[in-house]
Amino acid sequence: MGRKLLLEKAGVEGIRFFETYRREGGYKSVEKAFKMQPSDIVEEVKKSGLRGRGGAGFPTGMKWSFLAKPEGVPRYLVVNADESEPGTFKDRYLMEFIPHLLIEGMIVSSFALGSNTSYIYIRGEYDWVSDILEEAIIEARQHGWLGKNIQGSGFDCDIHVQRGAGAYICGEETALLESLEGKRGNPRIKPPFPAVKGLWGCPTVVNNVETIAAVVPIINEGGEAYASIGVGKSTGTKLISACGNINKPGVYEIDMTISVEEFIYSEEYCGGIANGKKLKACIPGGSSVPILPANLLLTTAKGEKRMMNYESLSDGGFATGSMMGSGGFIVLDEDQCIVRHTYSLARFYRHESCGQCSPCREGTGWMEKLLLKIESGKGEMSDIDLLWDIQRKIEGNTICPLGDAAAWPVAAAIRHFRDEFEWHVKNPEKCLTQNYGLAHYADPIHVPVQ
Amino acid sequence: MSRVNEIISRYPDGKQKSALLPVLHLAQVEFGGWLDVPTMDYVASILNIEPIEVYEVASFYSMYNLKPVGKHVFEVCQTGPCMLRGSDDIIDYIKKKLNISVGETTADGMFTLKTVECLGACGYAPMMQMGKTYREHLTKEKVDAIIEECRSKMN
Amino acid sequence: MQEESKKIKVTIDNITVDVEPGTTILHAARMIGGDVTPPAMCYYSKLEGSGGKCRTCLVEVAAGSAADPRPMPKLVASCRTGVMDGMVVKNITSDKVADARAGVVEFLLLNHPLDCPICDQAGECHLQDLGYDHGKEGTRYEFKRRTFKKEDIGPYIQLHMTRCILCYRCTYVASQLTDKRVHGVIDRGDHAAISTYISKAIDNDFSGNMIDVCPVGALTDKTFRFKNRVWFTKPVDAHRACTTPGCCGKATLWLRGDEVFRVTARKDQWGEVQSYDGKTGWICNTCRFETKKTSSWTIEGLTEISRHSVIGVNKYKKLEKPEETVVKVMDGHKPKLLMDIHSVSDVNNPEIHLSDINGPAHSNDFKK
Q1: By CB atoms within 10 Å of each CB, which of A14, B34, B72, C8 scores lowest?
Q2: Domain limits of chain A?
């Protein structure tokens, strides 16, 4: 059983409230941080090897060191709690059950970055979670952990929560800032980057909830100790939200040394495929990362066991690998139709496109229509090639990564499951009532652990 | 109004436009579950911005209703992970049960059915949002119970 | 001497140019001119914040700078990317760019109606030009095109949302030129639309400039609507002492005989409103919509139209095809000609110069 750094205390009765949280050792990292120089905290985070947990995996310490520090201009820390990537629900768990961990991490991070007013931008639908956070903030303020001169340190910091209102795009950091400014969630054209010109034109760091929460154990135990957990550049622990056709969907904290196979089949984690079915495919890092057929999911193209960490999940590039992404682990069993599932994701991205730039605005809708056409048995062989060409022309050509996020699932589905697409075209009636099944891409010899 | 001023105070001076999203949420709850033009104009006047700035924002975000809705709004998630766990069946069941299509409101003004994209509850699928809360692990029986619960609240 | 040393070098399609620091790739390319200049559908140098959206001006950066010669991983929007000293940019010499641009053109045309025959913008439409220059014949889109309900925005300007490519330029005009913006972009994604939301008249002295900045036929002049094809009217430069503060009083009148069919601001070779002494020559609605007698204007002479356009080639005074840099930089390859319009139409007979015709042009003039 791996070490837990974030959710270790999540099950403690009453941990949602300040007194229990404090009794269990909460807010110690703030006390420790106030004895350090802000630059030392940044150094410690760099040493930890912590990578952004929102999906991109960018080294957090490096991001922090890019923050511009012009005289007389406020700096802001904004926490991205706009968790909207299909398959991802880890931040919600953390905020719902152990909200003070996020507050604690935010105080330390705000101190390191010099932010006196920090914001949590939470997706609008997490209404009750927003209430939980607000309550936690009030408690922290009452106990002198927020406000003026926190614990006599001379550092002032306050935190505000802002709810979004239903827009996946606001998870993109510049769209998030626009939304926080009371505007449409249109991503900004970069450069300038938020580290130079962010919220209200001031230098800003935007970090994911889990990233900021991870700062707490990093400061408590030291960057090197944190880096010693895990493997290679995948340091520390990662929250994985597992869903789809598994026995035990939920949020799991892993230390990135376990294999994908263990994660899916062991009782400690997903508990195997639901209803005794076989594994067909999996999207290991949130809906935008490439889907992998069972055989490539469990072993890399080189024949090595695939592990639950950044490097191993992306081994083989997009040709035979995928990505860690946000940790949204979506499992598909043998009864699932890849075409239908891809259509559902394409519909999602069309719905969530902000409409600012033409490849995404027009391309996402086109892909959705073509996928529905194939799914409803009206497709032609040329439609599959057309889909491929459309996704290729969206990828990399848009203002923000939503274009890529919309293109990759379609590309991966065609790359690995082309036969299933062709089967739909060749069997226009059968595909309405039957599923293609497993074919050759499932792992035929794998017997699920009982 | 004090709530509005408290929200505005979270942002620096002159950045009161930032309060637009929270104030619209508040307005939607206060004014019957949807935002009509007078309400949006009122919000614009409070925040000292042009009405078009409010329309632009209100129409961008999916949580703001620009048309009247029923007393209870069922927002059922239909995205991939929920679909894998049978959200299509749940949607069909609610349609039949309430005798309405997606986007419609029942004749008595009680229920509106909407399909929405991922709400971040994939592990507890299928699910829907109802007001402030999520209803998760939906089954046909649970849907029946929820509808009953809503109806009994009215009496 | 000191100013010289401040300049930095950028190479675009094998042509090197010295530019001021802070110049964008697009502006550097415009300094070179000709084919190496990327097309721009949303960027407008006179409107702050514009650009980056349409993606037609994407270019490949083969070397970021002399100091860091690594290529940029993705194509970049040349209108919003600043040049660095020693940067190497590929536009028409890049297959990646050609491919991406063809994609962008296809996306822009996907839901665009093919109503050029009844569209007032035809002949000076940037999307039409873009389609001819970078698009493909035929469409691969088989689904129903998106349409919008017509919205009345007042007596002077026709909003035809179905033709809009969402460049946002008109919203910048409204917020930067007029005292109150009443229209904007509502809804999102593929339903996003230019609208006032409440069908309100856009009533402002400078609202007419939205027509001039619109790259397509989404915003057209109601006083000119269906009156004539632009290529049958004769443009002349004219001015008047306009008393509206902020109006430059310099305009182009589009005539047939002595009749003023249309008044627009004067445009430069990029299709943008011209600048005079660093100030943009916007005109007021009084000049544009209500001053339609030649006697109210002092006519300066025929307009020199220098913007390359599909239908405009060889039609107006001094209009020359831009210097063919393609041949120079592409190992002697000729630019690809999709279709020779002269093979199917007499209207653009290159032998006939409109400016040589006395009075308004007539279709008979082309049948020689």
Answers
A1: A14
A2: 18-228, 234-333, 338-433
Q: How far apart are CA B12 and CA B46, in angstroms?
A: 16
Touching B (3+ Cβ pairs <8 A), the chains are A, C
3-state secondary structure of C180: coil
Task: Judge: B57–A74 Cβ closer than 8 Å, yes or no.
Answer: no
Q: What is the CATH number of domain A338-433?
A: 1.20.1440.230
Contacts of A397 in chain C (CB under 8 A): 55, 58, 74-75, 100, 103-104
- Assigned fold of C2-108: Ubiquitin-like (UB roll) (3.10.20)
Nearest chain A CA: its distance from C110 CA (Å) = 7
ipTM confidence score = 0.95
| CATH topology (fold) of A234-333 | Ubiquitin-like (UB roll) (3.10.20)
Whose structure tokens read 């809804």?
A: C187
Residue in chain A lying closest to B9 (CA): A160
Q: Is the CB of C196 inside 8 Å of chain B's CB atoms?
A: yes
Among the partner-chain residues C80, C99, C192, the one whose CB lies closest to the CB of A355 is C192
| Degrees, nearest 5: CA angle A58-A63-A68 | 155
Structural domains of chain B, with CATH: 2-60 (1.10.10), 72-152 (3.40.30.10)
The two tokens of residue A85 are 């990537």
A18-228, CATH topology level: Rossmann fold (3.40.50)
Q: Does domain C141-221 have CATH number 3.30.390.30?
A: no
Pick from A191, A175, A189: nearest CA to A399: A189
Q: Which chains touch A (3 or more CB pairs under 8 A)?
A: B, C
Sequence-distant (≥ 6) Cβ neighbours of residue A37 within 8 angstroms: none
CB-CB under 8 Å, B117 with A168 = yes
pLDDT in tens, C198-256: 888 888 999 999 999 999 999 999 999 999 888 888 889 999 999 999 999 999 999 98
Residue C184 near chain B (CB below 8 Å) = yes
